[in-house]
Amino acid sequence: MPSERLYDGVDYVKLPGWKIFMIQLLNIAGLGPIFGAIMGALFGPVVFLWIVFGCIFIGGAHDYISGMLSLRHDGRSITEVIGFYLGEKFKNVSIIFIMVLSILVGVVFVKGPAALLTNLTGIENTFWFYLIFGYYIIATMFPIDQIIGRVYPVFAAALLIMALGLALHMVRYGAVIPEAVPSNLYNMHSGSAAIFIYPMLFITVACGAVSGFHATQSPMMARCMTSERQGRSIFYGAMIAEGVIAVIWAAAAMAFFGGTAQLNAEMTLHKMDPAWLVNQICASWLGVFGGALAVLGVVACPITTGDTAFRAARLIVADFFKFDQKPVKNRLIISLPIFFTAYIITKVNFDIIWRYFAWCNQTLSVIILWTCAVFLASTGRFHWIMTIPAVFMTAICSSYILLAPEGFKLSAGVAYPVGALIAVAFLLIFLAGYHIKPRHGSI
Question: Which of 180, 205, 257, 411 has the fewest CB atoms within 10 Å, i.e. the most exposed one?
Answer without folding.
Answer: 411
